[in-house]
Amino acid sequence: MSDRQIVYLTDAKLITCVLQNGLAEKVLDAAKNCGAQGATVSYARGTGVRDRMGLIGVTIDENKEVLRIIVSAEQAELVFEAMYLAGELDTPGKGIMYISELDRIATYIPENVLESVNKK
Q: Buried (b) or exposed (e) across 48-62, using 16+ Cβ within 10 A?
């Protein structure tokens, strides 16, 4: 058996933002300016909402961009607010976003970072 072990990160949140096509880059830039390290961008097709929004005279593209960003619990509110404002999510049909609690995260952590944490 290997002497490798998993180091878990805690106190993190996942911000998920489903956006109108073409807005992800602008929203991602706002998140990075607040300290977010990176994101996963994927593409999706929305259904259902487009018909309802048409009643208020807003045409909504069914193609969506989905942005997922993991941030520390301390950063979450600041990054969330910046993303919301950059995506103009207070405008009908622009998108929706939410924050999820993460129980644990596992990824590569450099030895020097682990050593500095263990010394504290």
A: eeeeeeeeeeeebee
Domain range enclosing 50: 11-104
Torsion sign (Cα): 64, 74, 110, 14: negative
Taking the C-alpha atoms of residue 54 and residue 93, their distance in angstroms, rounded to an integer, is 10
pLDDT tens column, 21-76: 999 999 999 999 999 988 999 999 877 655 555 555 556 668 899 999 999 999 99
Q: Tell me whether strands 40-45 and 63-72 are parallel, antiparallel or unpaired.
A: antiparallel
6 lies in some domain: no
Q: How many domains does the chain have?
A: 1
pTM: predicted TM-score of the whole model, two decimal places: 0.81
